[in-house]
């Protein structure tokens, strides 16, 4: 009976469960393609939007390198930018994951920055954490005010670094004196303050404080939540005695000050309980192992299950070189257990990252995105064009 059931599964893969065949798209099999709707199709016919990076952009791995999907789409359909100064690809609607061709345009770096600051969803804007600057001509008794160092630099025609240094050292430059304006920060309900501990040595940092609500107070009294990087985490700047600068993560500083050191060498990861990287209140932080941290991430991403969504998807497998004999598995883990393989290898093969795993090839049993969409146009990806674009951008940045 068991043999009969097993043989029933070993049949040619049904058309409805197969990945998109080469005949579905107007290009030859084995060709990487990208669509005007921001979708990518690998050489095996599997379609996806790319992996969502912490920065908010989608990326895809081509020729063993990571590429941003929005650049692949724009370059494939429109080629290299005609203006050397307008090489950045801007998302018109502000959504970094919307890589439809109609949403992309080449812009200069300055224009892209202006769009970024104008975006209401940008989060922690610089205006919220900027330090007001007081200035006056040397010898004058009257101080004047600018909202930030950047604003003062623009109005006075000076370098931002020069004004910042003068404010810190209480010195003058080009006939002007500068000071940071003291800002009285309102106390937050229930907020407690403790000395900041150097993450490298565990010793207190002179003049620095961190709060139980995730705020940082600098030596000059300025209080803020830190600078939010593209990863989603907040960081603050620390200068070494030799002049070098470090950027420790605020959530690790809060945990060190209020929770203490990690209880064991394995429990060295500071996890955000609610999954929000910007919520650095001590009640939202806990020490975990790397495995627990990853499990928590996938549990929040996929609801109640602590198993990554990708491993819960059914897959088809067959021995390499066979034309039929597909076998269905309820999940990638079950396929790996049945065939004596590693589940990560099965996942990589099913997603098209490798051609085979342990002598077997795998396909996702349900790929809902493998359908042509009305008005969608597909074109082959020109890898040489991508490489040329990357080389030109590195050269412009002085990296080559």
Automatic annotation (TrEMBL):
Residues 63-113, 244-294 form the HNH nuclease domain. InterPro entries: His-Me_finger_sf, HNH_nuc, I-HmuI_NUMOD-like, WH-like_DNA-bd_sf. Signal peptide: none annotated. Gene3D superfamilies: 3.90.75.20, Winged helix-like DNA-binding domain superfamily/Winged helix DNA-binding domain. This is HNH nuclease domain-containing protein. The lineage of its organism: Eukaryota, Sar, Alveolata, Dinophyceae, Suessiales.
